[in-house]
Specification:
Strand 5 and strand 6 form a beta hairpin. The termini are close together. It contains nine helices and eight strands. With 210 residues, it is α/β, with parallel strands linked by helices. Bound molecules: adenosine monophosphate.
Length: 210
């Protein structure tokens, strides 16, 4: 199962990916997570990426395409993978098709989470990640049972001023990727305003009836 989870920042891609990797035992490939790890580890890639991420801009295509190519060549992708936050430009989508072709694979389905832009800022600014488990919470809509136990942190780019720039990048550079996949007849639209577990059930039933 080679899946792309598509949607604006805060649409719920990461939340759904976490559920699906457990159910299907395939890896989540999140370019955002790979880049944040590089920043944490202080690598050259991290230093380069941070300049863009702190400003809500996309990291250059060559950089992320290289990361994805390396990641897809790993053995754990043989049974499938879930792309989360990639491709984010039409060029990335084209390069991904080339990378997969070389590996005799292809994207089978694009699950697009649709959330009204008006909800997104509140969703993202309230988002917190558990330092312990990596699980994603929302301080108002989905708080953890024990906040201390989870040791929550806010992403540096989840502050309102950066979020607005990320949304602008999404509209200009990422939204056209959906048309790219619609032309390939691979897109299934999902109402991202529903409860996370309802969406997960919907996705599972789509994948199992494919
Ligand atoms: P995310 O965790 O997917 O929201 O990504 C956080 C940030 O990482 C984005 O705002 C970009 O700066 C960068 N990033 C993640 N994935 C990509 C990508 N596919 N292309 C370019 N930049 C990316």
């Amino acid at each position: 199962m080679n899946i792309v989870l598509f949607g604006a920042p805060g649409a719920g891609k990461g939340t759904q990916a976490k559920e699906l990797i457990e159910k299907y035992n395939i890896p989540q490939i999140s370019t955002g997570d790979i880049l944040r790890n590089a920043i944490k580890n202080g690598t050259k890639l991290g230093l380069e990426a941070k300049k863009y991420m702190d400003n809500g801009q996309l990291v250059p295509d060559e950089v992320v395409n290289g990361l994805v190519k390396e990641r897809l060549a790993m053995d754990d992708c043989n049974q499938g993978f879930i792309m989360d936050g990639y491709p984010r430009t039409v060029i990335q989508a084209e390069v991904l098709d080339e990378i997969l072709k070389e590996l005799s694979k292809e994207i089978e389905i694009v699950l697009a989470l649709d959330v009204p832009t008006s909800d997104i800022v509140e969703r993202i600014t309230g988002r917190r990640t558990s330092k312990k488990t990596g699980k994603i919470y929302h301080i108002k809509y989905n708080p953890p049972v024990d906040e201390k136990e989870e040791d929550l942190e806010q992403r540096a780019d989840d502050k309102e001023e950066v979020v607005l720039k990320r949304l602008e990048a999404y509209e200009k550079q990422t939204a056209p990727v959906l048309d790219y996949y619609k032309k390939q007849d691979k897109v299934v639209m999902l109402d991202g305003s529903k409860k996370p577990n309802e969406i997960t059930q919907e996705i599972i039933s789509i994948l199992e009836n494919k």
